[in-house]
Automatic annotation (TrEMBL), chain A:
Pfam families in UniProt: BPD_transp_1
Signal peptide: none
Superkingdom, natural source: Bacteria
Residue spans crossing the bilayer: 7-28, 58-85, 97-114, 134-154, 202-225, 245-267
Protein family membership: Belongs to the binding-protein-dependent transport system permease family. CysTW subfamily.
Gene source species: Marinomonas colpomeniae
Alphabetized UniProt keyword annotations: Cell membrane, Membrane, Transmembrane, Transmembrane helix, Transport
Stretches assigned to the ABC transmembrane type-1 domain: 58-266
Keyword flag GTP-binding: no
Name of the protein in its database record: Sugar ABC transporter permease
Membrane topology annotation: Multi-pass membrane protein
TrEMBL record, chain B:
Pfam families referenced in this protein's UniProt entry, alphabetically: ABC_tran
UniProt KW keywords: ATP-binding, Nucleotide-binding, Transport
Taxonomic lineage from the root: Bacteria, Pseudomonadati, Pseudomonadota, Gammaproteobacteria, Oceanospirillales
Protein origin, superkingdom: Bacteria
Protein name: ABC transporter ATP-binding protein
InterPro entries: AAA+_ATPase (IPR003593), ABC_SmlMolc_Importer (IPR050093), ABC_transporter-like_ATP-bd (IPR003439), ABC_transporter-like_CS (IPR017871), P-loop_NTPase (IPR027417)
SUPFAM superfamilies: P-loop containing nucleoside triphosphate hydrolases (SSF52540)
Organism: Marinomonas colpomeniae
Amino acid sequence: MRFKASYNLWLIAPAALMVAVFFLYPLYFSLYSAITLDNGSFTLTHLEKAFELYSNDILFTIMLVCVSVFILAILSITIAATIALSPFKRITSLLGFLYRLPLFIPFIVTAQMMRTFLAKNGLMNNAFVEAGLLTPMETISLLGWSGIIITFVWKQMAFSTLLISGAMAALDESQIRAARNLGASKIRILFEVMLPQITPTLGVAMVLSTVTMMSVLSVPLMIGTGSPTMMSADMAFRVNSYGDYHVANALGLVSYLICAGLAWFYLRQSLKDKGAVA
Amino acid sequence: MTRLHIENLQAKYGEKLILNNINLSVEEGEMIALLGPSGCGKTTLLNALCGFVPISQGDIFSGDRVITHLPAEKRNITMVFQSYALWPHMTVAENIGYGLKVRKVKRAEIQSRVNELLRIVKLDNLQDEKVTALSGGQRQRVALARALAIRPDVLVLDEPLSNLDAKVRLNVRHEIKALQKQLGFTSLIVTHDQEEALVMADKIAVLHKGEIVQVGTPEEIYNKPNSPFVADFMGAENRIEWPTEKDGFSDSSHKITLHQSSNNEPSNQPKQVYFRSENVILSTRQTNSKIQKEEGLILTGHIEQSAFFGSNYRISVRCGMHIIQVDHTSDLPMNTPVSLQVPNHALYIYDNIVENKVHQKSTVV
Ligand SMILES: Nc1ncnc2c1ncn2[C@@H]1O[C@H](COP(=O)(O)OP(=O)(O)O)[C@@H](O)[C@H]1O
Ligand SMILES: [Mg+2]
């Protein structure tokens, strides 16, 4: 028995070591650096400084992410539901192919693409002008907060639609038939039969998307207008311009706490749902 | 009054023809069983009725309404699904009341109808349970109550008993039948179990490879199967091809004769003979007196195997190339020489033409 236990430990040792060295240690160190002085004593000054300098940006980030996630949820559910419930198989299979494309385009390419598309003299406005819908004077640049939201949603939609679509496809087809059979419309089926059963997946998709948005640097740098900007850009700025790892890590701690708070909320919610079932 | 009428219905999956030339009428308050082996298209037929599978030809009438191309949600034909298809995130009461909620019935009214149904299917006090907490038999009854709640024109049940264990199955079978008598709903029930069909249905339609091959009362189907397929499916599993020259009946201990007093057909015309194991009278050579008249089918052979079936023994008798299954009250040792007699009325005889082209009944008594 004893031999067996130690033997099993050896089996997981390489993996555990990898996690510890490359994941736990850096994480621990960045959190540690956020709340200590160079001599190792505990301090809150970095956090205070981070809030003092960047509280606007923190709020801006939270707002942007919330709005993006909200739009993202609505669009992904709409696409996934169209694919699941539409009787037109040809069109939905085309849609099923199209929505996946952004999965294979990196964030930085997306940002670059959106930059040329959304700018004041970008592709979109040029097209409007060509079509005679706008004069060059009337064009507005969508770079800035709206551009960031558009880019986030555009890029994350593939991922979250993929998850939600998969969850919908995994539902028992006869459950949907049973609802139609009793006279339910497609909308009713979506809201009363499908969505309640895929909320866990929806939660996962949104939490993971939030974490991704919080961590992307290229989008605020390339599409944002500078001030206010997102926390990821501030962190890069702190490190690159001042070599100030402490405040950068303090900002990291804040964004980590935001994500952790969200994850906690999500876990609590899904546990509650499970509790109700049992 | 005819509640449901199906005319020349044809359905396909892609290019694959699944149902062809289906004609069936269900009278008000009648229960018809669709009986057929797995894969013959029973579920597809129910799906076509409910509007889940498009119909490529033919018409469906519900009362005087043509519902052939109506969307599923407008047909008022409800289905009890083979897997029950209950919604796991809803309580028992929410499941049952859903159809009424969709129809915008007032909440108090839904409540009272749900309670009424809970009483009918004997699930009182379970209204607030999650359906995931119920047993198979209870889920089945929730599914039934859910389908009945909106008072459908026709109720269709897809193998409602196939997911239940044997004992519960007998109970539920009984309950569904009793309920149908009590409430008088019109229904189509799908099954691959001939006993289920015989016990529950007012009429049986036998389905074979997507076509209805015989419709009739349980007695008609059981006693006068119109084709080798129906005979075989209804339990007449012993089969002998006539003539039998090549079947190894040459030596003295294995003989076969067929006496048909009622007519004198030339006995060399190719025929297939089917009969049930329960209709075979077995006698050992010593008690040969049992065979009173030289009538019907008479075979001699020896015992090859014997299996205990509870109420009787199922004995396999080798007669030439054939193994004949016989029900007998007592066990018999291997290799006992025996003679078998099947009375004329228990023989189903068909002209031996290529199956599935024309099912023509020939001389049964
Ligand atoms: N969705 C489908 N697509 C293609 N073929 C199908 C589909 N569902 C069933 N079939 C085919 O239709 C035939 C009848 O199936 P089904 O109606 O389910 O039989 P049963 O219910 O009598 O067992 C089978 O041969 C099956 O392979
Ligand atoms: Mg089936």
